[in-house]
Amino acid sequence: MAVVRKELDAAAVRGHFPALDQRVHGHPLIYLDSAATAQRPRAVLDAVVGFYERDNANVHRGLYELSRRATEGFEAARGCVARFIGAADPAELVWTRGTTEAINLVALAWGWANLREGDEIVVTVLEHHSNLVPWQLVAERTGARLRRVDIDGQGRLRLDQLDELLNERTRLVAVGHVSNALGTINPVREIVERAKAVGARVLVDGAQAVPHMKVDVQALGCDFYAFSGHKLGAPMGIGALWARRELLEAMPPWQGGGEMIDTVELERSTWAAVPHKFEAGTPNVAGAIGMAAAAMYIESLGYDAIAAHEEALVRYGMERLGAVDGLRLFGPEDPAERTAVFSFALEGVHPHDVATILDAEGIAVRAGHHCTQPLMRRLGVPATTRASCWIYNTTDELDRLAEALEVARRIFA
User: Which residue(s) pair with 225 in the sheet?
Assistant: First the structure.
């Protein structure tokens, strides 16, 4: 029996995102900044508003009906998001404010407890500052040393150099699943296997991967996986850390306060069971519920359909933008090795000027170093312009982008 492959109807999907139905400077909005933050589908907005209208109460504490419903929704959301990334146990998912806080949690709770002088932490030149600066701070506190994996001319990690860096002193490898600046998809499973061979732990920054591909943390084999809600259509200020339960149980708390305790005396306290040990204070209940709604929305579209849509955007975008005179496109040449993130430099035009001209045409892109200053220096540029696509973008919008870039080049010629 033939398998019918589900296709993504971009026009129908766009109708699910109210923010896209507007004009900017007299032009229909073309939103090409989803790598920074995605727009929110109606399903997420309804879930968040529904919580505040009907179930708003603090969780885990009240014996009344609203608190019961809030707690039930909050913990159901944890289970939903845990399943979304292939976690075996919802208790392995810790709510955070986002990827940045998730990585800092590991750096402070696991890093300070396990790293010593002479230990080594391997990072890559592709990393977002959120997966670099926390390890710099830990290295300063513990005496550990940072080692860096370089990229080749197409923005792909040099795994041969990784092999040279890994040794018996390596305690952690911190790597992004997908580059926010170049769209490079890193071979995480292969990196994990090489790191495990020397006994190292692996943390994966999954902020840019979760919106675009099916993630299975068990199949990847990593120890920690951090990701954000707002990149996949959930509210801002919510994210999660997945970690192996045995690691979470061995790690000390990183913040103190309510919710994360078992018993408190004047001189000492004992801690709640995981994951609550790492969730001090009143949590972002609406954010968690919104994140679960975003996960269910993405699953309803189907990963095969999302992948096929994105592959078409990658191929079309590389060809169309590559035809713009004077444009230098960064990142892998093979569409299979990247997401629909197009980071480029336009000859003779500063990225900020490019973004300003595009904004006048109703096209929203990002210009700057994208929180990847070491990568920009490695590429030999101060900044790039970045157009990042998601499920609601179309090839027609990429045409509009290319046409506007031609206008920008003529203005500055």
Answer: 204, 242
Question: Helix 285-301 crosses helix 42-50 at what angle (to 10 degrees)?
Answer: 150
Angle at CA of residue 313, ends 310 and 318, nearest 5°? 130
Phi, psi of 352 (to 5 degrees): -65, -35
Question: Tokens for 348?
Answer: 């003779």
Question: Which amino acid appears at position 22 of this protein?
Answer: Q
Selecting among 80, 222, 371, 389, the annotated active-site residue is: 371
Q: Please list the rounded mean pLDDT of every run of 10 residues in the chain (413 residues).
A: 64 96 97 98 98 96 92 98 98 98 98 97 98 98 98 98 98 98 98 98 98 97 98 98 98 93 92 95 97 98 95 98 96 96 96 97 98 98 98 98 95 83
44, two tokens: 């997420």
CA 46 – CA 51 distance, rounded (Å): 9
Judge whether 222 counts as a catalytic residue.
no
| Contact (Cβ atoms closer than 8 angstroms) between residue 342 and residue 329 | yes
Q: How many CA atoms lie within 13 A of 36 on its CB side?
A: 15
> Which 3 state secondary structure label does DSSP give 30?
strand
Domains in the chain, ordered, with CATH? 10-31+302-407 (3.90.1150.10), 45-299 (3.40.640.10)
Predicted TM-score of the model (pTM) = 0.97
> Which DSSP state fits 49?
H
What is the predicted pLDDT for the residue at 3? 40
Q: Look at residues 225, 215, 238, 228 and name the one whose alpha carbon lies nearest to residue 36.
A: 228
The backbone torsions φ and ψ at residue 323, rounded to the nearest 5 degrees and listed phi first, read -85, -5
- Helix or strand run (H / E) with residue 299: helix 285-301
In Å, what is the CA distance from 263 to each residue of 146, 257, 270? 38, 11, 5
Q: What is the sign, positive or negative, of the torsion defined by CA atoms of 78, 83, 84, 86? A: positive
Complete DSSP assignment for 50-97: HIIIII-S-TTT--SHHHHHHHHHHHHHHHHHHHHTT-S-GGGEEEES
Strand order in the sheet with 327-330: 327-330, 341-346, 384-388, 366-368
For the stretch 93-105, pLDDT in tens is: 999 999 999 999 9
